[in-house]
Amino acid sequence: MKNIVIVGGGAGGLELATKLGDTFGKKNRANIHLVDANNTHLWKPLLHEVATGSLDSGIDELSYRAQAYNHYFNFHIGRMNNLDRDKKEIILAPILDENQFEVLPERRLKYDTLILAIGSQTNDFGTPGAKEFCSFLDSRAQADKFHQKLLNTYLKANNTATQKGNYQLNIAIVGAGATGVELAAELHNTASELSAYGLDKLGKDQLQVSIIEAGDRILPALPPRISTAAHRELEKLNIKVRTNTFIKEVNESGFLTNDDMLIPAELKIWAAGVKAPNWMKELGGLETNRVNQIVVKPTLQTTRDDNIFAIGDCSFMLQKDGTPVPPRAQAAHQQAYHVYKNLVRKSEARSLKNYVYKDKGSLVNLSRYSTVGSLMGNLGSGSMMVEGKIARIVYVSLYRLHQVALHGYFKTALMSLSGRINKIIRPRLKLH
């Protein structure tokens, strides 16, 4: 029986493993394997909510082993660190415990078809001090770590404000993409919630959140009218937006710009730039670009090996207009479904079809304050801008569609009901 191996349990990888398991694994037509370095899955667009405490990751996370049991695929915990194309094997690094004792040795997993869905990480562009002094939000572990750092910083600042009276807490975010903009709004909301829960010596007017963007506007990947609407909403929240600002160094005090101005910050977050992990550069002799993404053909097969596919943020494919497929969750979702259909076609000895990215629009959620975006994206009829409650409903539905792909409509409806109940019986903010 053939082995189909998927590396990466993000939005695309997990949806693909679930679909293939239900189609091939359930009928013993192929062995489906999912590999991930973590035991649980959390939808990456939610990480900024985990970081600020507005979402409890312990409630929304999904167990890979449970999903594998329910959908007829095998789960392997481990971090891929190499590829042997001659033997058609992936190599998983040893797993060590907190004391650096070996839990699992290096392992090899054979494949007939390999799908790389490893995702991406933030690109600090080698900026001095960024790794040392900045927080990143590429994983649930990083989001949880930032949440604890945020609570401790706010507790300390509240105590200082109690003793000294006049005090300002500065938080700065580099990168005004969707993550940076949504995080800024959530941080403003967190300040309000913490004040309600007793940390009230540091008022909202004593919290200064800043967004730093090298480009001339925020949300540069989205249409200007959405960028303008989001900018307007951020200004209402007293969030300082600094465009055309280049950071050349990060130190303990804050961010140093190209013109030697220091932007002070007790908490520093880097959310600018995207690249595939460094170990993927020239992985197994596959073709990669300058940010380590694997170059794929329109069928989503790699340019140098038809038995290997790549999807999501770790892949690079040029569209007919010469622009790359953008690193968005909707692209990963579409590509996962396209690879699924192509593998079905392959099993029936039919030719594979080319993937065409369909832009369904983009939405940016500014916490409980507003949601702005556009629907229909690049469809021939043009896009439609939406704001407010309608935009918020559509934004939430994107996550529900991801849950439907993993659990079906009935379980997703129960999860939605459970979420509404939790909002009533649990604190509005995770306080620990």
Account of the 3D structure:
With 432 residues, the protein is of the alpha/beta class. The protein folds into three domains: 3-120 and 276-347, FAD/NAD(P)-binding domain (3-Layer(bba) Sandwich); 130-270, FAD/NAD(P)-binding domain (3-Layer(bba) Sandwich), CATH 3.50.50; 361-424, no CATH class. The chain is built from eleven helices and 27 strands. The chain has a six-stranded mixed β-sheet with strand order 5-2-1-11-23-22. Strands 15-14-13-19 form a four-stranded parallel β-sheet. The mean pLDDT is 90.
Topology:
Elements (H helix, E strand, L loop, with lengths): L2 E5 L3 H15 L5 E6 L3 E2 L5 H6 L4 H4 L1 E2 H7 L3 E4 L2 E5 L4 E4 L2 E2 L5 E3 L2 E4 L2 E4 L4 E2 L7 H4 L6 H25 L4 E6 L3 H19 L10 E6 L11 H13 L3 E3 L4 E5 L2 E4 L4 E3 L2 E4 L3 E2 L18 E2 L5 E2 L2 E6 L4 E2 L12 H19 L13 E6 L3 E6 L8 E4 H20 L1 H17 L7
Parallel strand pairs: 1-2, 1-11, 2-5, 11-23, 13-14, 13-19, 14-15, 21-24
Antiparallel strand pairs: 3-4, 6-7, 7-10, 8-9, 12-20, 16-17, 17-18, 22-23, 25-26, 26-27
Q: Nutshell version of this structure?
A:
By secondary structure, the protein is an alpha/beta fold. The chain has helices at residues 11-25, 47-52, 57-60, 64-70, 130-133, 140-164, 178-196, 224-236, 329-347, 388-407, 409-425, and strands at 3-7, 31-36, 40-41, 62-63, 74-77, 80-84, 89-92, 95-96, 102-104, 107-110, 113-116, 121-122, 169-174, 207-212, 240-242, 247-251, 254-257, 262-264, 267-270, 274-275, 294-295, 301-302, 305-310, 315-316, 361-366, 370-375, 384-387. The chain is 34% helix and 24% strand.
